[in-house]
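step 3/5: co-fold with NAX
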Amino acid sequence: MLQLLTSSQTREADAHTIKNKPISSLDLMESASNAFIYAFKQDVPTIDSLISVYCGTGNNGGDGLAIARLLKENAYDRISVKIARFSAKESADFSANLERLKLTGIPITEITNTDVFPEENAEVIIDALIGSGLNKALQGDLKSLVIHLNQLQKKVIAVDIPTGLPSEGPIDPDACILKASLCVCFQRPKINFFFPESAKALERFKVVEIGLDEQFIQSQAGPWKYIEEKDIRYSIKPRKAFSHKGTYGHALIIAGYTETMGAALLCADACLHSGAGLTTACIPENGYSALNSFAPEVMILPRSELILGKSLEKYSSIAIGPGLGTDKEATDLLEYVLNFNKARIVIDADAINILAANTELLTKLPKDCIICPHVKEFDRLFGKSNSWWDRVTLALKKAKEFNLIILLKNQYTFIVTPDGDILINPTGNPGMAVGGMGDILTGMIASFLAQSYPAIEAAMLAAYIHGAAGDQLIQMNSIPPRYITEQIPALIKRFTAPD
Ligand SMILES: NC(=O)C1=CN([C@@H]2O[C@H](COP(=O)(O)OP(=O)(O)OC[C@H]3O[C@@H](n4cnc5c(N)ncnc54)[C@H](O)[C@@H]3O)[C@@H](O)[C@H]2O)[C@@H](O)CC1
Ligand SMILES: Nc1ncnc2c1ncn2[C@@H]1O[C@H](COP(=O)(O)OP(=O)(O)O)[C@@H](O)[C@H]1O
Ligand SMILES: [K+]
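step 4/5: write tokens
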């Protein structure tokens, strides 16, 4: 997993690399600027594009000056530089790069006040005004400049981070930020890129290596970790010779209601496709024939038997919630399952809403129980938050308090653990914003739990593979969830095979 860094940790990583590699800070800036150029050339391959580089006077601005010079070396020769000089301060590496830039003949304009802005006819704007050194909301002249640049509606490519976006912490909905169509960021994505509020600051990002000390970065403390494909490959166990269905566990899916039987079918079918040896669905009787034709491999535990207290001993994992309803019977079922407290449990959808209405049940959740709310379910359960940063911080607190794994769903799903980690899942796409998608995920988690994966791994594998299945179908505008299920067995096999 990639350890993500706060802005102060990034500064420490810069300083550590400069001291220990050793490399001068000016050379590190050159390396960062070269890495930017590499990504930029893929995005703007036309060398006669008209490009304007807006630079502050700190190190982000220093990058901008070096980038302008390196662009020229790369045959982009329609470049101009605008320096926003609203204070007397400038960093040493900014000054050094300004001297180098002056030798290139690239036109440089200084903006010292915002009464009149220089005319701008560039097709592409490179934003090197402020980077990870942002220490307060934009105001005054800089704010006016950013408002002006936003109004031009040009293609903006940000260096390291869009000007005005904090690297971490709540994103103020009213913050003034220079909106980028692409951000090329250095070594690690910024934590704030993963929150929906960042959509006002950037459309997409690319991460480029600039040569910071990886060992140092990975040794940094902090909850934010980014899941990589190699984590999935490392975690998945191949099916063994001479194994049998008993080897891979027995999952029970307690789900479905007359009007929402489909949720149960999708969930059970996804569980089956994710490798559980046996899958049983506990559904109302009026769903039997649908289940038998949709997924004949799935067995049935009559709902009436469970209500009468059927033992759950034989199940290695239980999923409860999809399409279950929130009536008294559903509440009793959840309570029964929680009192049983032996199997490994994943709680979703209506079962989360039942928890929200009966918060005393939270104390009965078994250790390492997984709940997988979307944002509304999460807020219903734990209260409203003003920002995604606050919401994930709250999830961290609740995960510790109740010894829970909280899988908070979104474009980037956060898996928040009782040990204090926040794992960010990178897979998935907006085509997956379709009802029933979460039911598939829950079935997958139940399946991995049944197969004896540790609970955090079960959550991670399910979230990653679920999103990866969606990414395989990226050519589809919207993806019916059952199409995801079809992708699962081959994807698991692919991640099992040596890379
Ligand atoms: N050796 C290094 O430290 C490296 C730094 N790099 C670049 O350096 C950037 C960080 O540079 P700096 O730490 O110099 O900071 P920035 O260049 O991001 O910001 C410059 C200065 O702007 C001022 N400022 C902050 N918020 C402001 C606001 N709201 N209004 C007006 N002024 C404000 C601060 O005094 C800050 O020091 C990174 O984002 C990256 O682009 C890269 O060159 C890689 C190497
Ligand atoms: N824009 C998106 N990008 C990536 N994944 C998405 C996106 N929208 C939805 N998903 C995924 O689809 C699933 C939706 O779950 P949920 O909202 O619970 O659906 P439902 O309740 O209809 O089953 C989650 O796993 C979520 O991460
Ligand atoms: K920037």
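step 5/5: annotate
The mean pLDDT is 97.
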